[in-house]
């Protein structure tokens, strides 16, 4: 097991995947991390759609004009959903779950990358939310926050550079410039 301080330093976004399938046990651990993530008032109101079908992954990659094309190379995509009427913290709760999945994937040696979908879309005005809802048969009351791509890493990324941490953006007591 990797120490969390090392996991934080090592986890980087990966947009290139080998195409090798992710085994079921790893998928279960990734989803376990999401399901155990903290939520506002313990609501656990998020929902997740797991997608490993190549055709659907390609369709998801076209849900917005830019920044999602690498989804078609992922072995697995997890669509993170929330119901804004039932949970006013759906964005925060879904974000925590998404990041929890990413750290679990890193600990397993897998790559991941968050694909922002909320507030994004196509140049014709169609929202990514509408596109994804149509692909995956998502009910109208749910909104799409993001899609997290997972796969075996096809590239190497250097760990985070501790010398580039912006400690000056940490304020103690009061905000100071």
Q: Give the DSSP E fraction (strand runs of 2 or more residues).
A: 15-25%
Read across the widest sheet, the strand sequence of neighbours is: 1-2-4-3
Q: How far is the first residue's CA from the last residue's CA?
A: 39 Å
In helices, the fraction of residues equals 25-40%
The gyration radius over C-alpha positions equals 17 Å
The biggest sheet, with number of strands, parallel, antiparallel or mixed sense and barrel status, is: 4 strands, antiparallel
**Total count of strands:** 4
Order of SSEs, N→C? HHEHEHEHE
Low-confidence spans: pLDDT under 50, at least 5 residues? Answer: none
Class from secondary-structure proportions = alpha+beta
Globular, elongated, flat, extended or rod-shaped: what is the shape?
A: globular
Mean pLDDT, all residues: 95
Counted by DSSP, the helix tally is: 5
């Amino acid at each position: 097991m990797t120490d969390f301080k090392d996991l934080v330093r090592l986890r980087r976004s990966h947009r290139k995947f080998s195409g090798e399938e992710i085994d079921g046990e790893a998928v279960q651990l990734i989803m376990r991390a999401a399901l155990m993530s903290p939520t506002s008032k313990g609501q656990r109101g998020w929902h997740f759609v797991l997608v490993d079908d190549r055709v659907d992954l390609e369709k998801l990659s076209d849900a917005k004009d830019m920044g999602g094309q690498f989804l078609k190379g992922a072995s697995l995509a997890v669509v993170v959903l929330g119901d804004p009427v039932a949970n006013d913290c759906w964005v925060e709760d879904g974000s925590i779950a998404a990041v929890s999945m990413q750290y679990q994937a890193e600990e397993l040696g897998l790559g991941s990358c968050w694909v922002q979908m909320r507030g994004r879309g196509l140049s014709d005005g169609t929202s990514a939310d509408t596109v994804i809802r149509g692909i995956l048969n998502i009910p109208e009351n749910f909104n799409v926050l993001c899609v997290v791509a997972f796969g075996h890493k096809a590239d190497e990324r250097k760990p985070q550079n501790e010398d580039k941490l912006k400690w000056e953006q940490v304020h103690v007591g009061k905000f100071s410039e």
